[in-house]
Design goal:
Length: about 180
């Protein structure tokens, strides 16, 4: 287990060992489903040009902020990391993503998380359940363009992006239990 500090250093031997544990033991390949992503940046730790969420960061956030057996909502599910780590730690995870290709790739890596295809702006409003934690990784404007779908945030102008992201976050917040993150 990684001991929490005020600074998270991903270069430490302990962090790298824990990251390798997650990737090796659970077959995490978070880049799958995003082979056609157009990226404007290079990620120094990745053999691909898409951002990969760090499983150790997931583990720490879940351990610190989610009550035992808690429920996690991810309105921009993207890769598989957040869902796999959540379920393997004993949490219930619901991830929503526009890309059917991405959801299929995630499901091939693990059948435990609940991943659904859809537009979070529309789907979260209809959810009946409450959650204990919202943890997501939305597009960063157009740094990574995931599709040509007009509902994809990475296709929107800066103003449209801000407005739509704010809408999803506000709707997600309504689904939170009291005193949750």
């Amino acid at each position: 287990m990684i001991t929490p500090f005020s600074v998270l250093d991903t270069r430490t031997k302990e962090w790298k060992k824990r990251k390798d544990y997650w990737i090796t033991n659970y077959g995490i390949q978070s880049e799958l489903g995003r082979e056609n992503t157009q990226s404007k940046t290079i990620f120094w730790d990745s053999p691909t040009n898409v951002s990969i969420f760090d499983p150790v960061l997931c583990e720490l956030m879940y351990d610190w902020f989610v009550p035992k057996g808690g429920k996690i909502l991810d309105p921009f599910a993207g890769g598989s990391v957040r869902g796999i780590v959540a379920e393997e730690m004993g949490f219930s995870y619901l991830g929503i993503d526009l890309s059917e290709e991405q959801i299929i790739a995630n499901r091939k890596q693990s059948s435990k998380p609940k991943w659904i295809v859809g537009d979070s702006k529309k789907m979260i409003f209809g959810l009946q359940q409450q959650f204990d934690f919202i943890f997501t990784c939305p597009p960063y404007y157009d740094l990574e363009v995931y599709s040509d779908n007009p509902a994809d945030l990475s296709q929107m102008s800066e103003g449209e992006f801000d407005m739509n992201l704010e809408s999803v976050i506000k709707q997600s917040k309504i689904r939170l239990n009291d005193n949750r993150f």
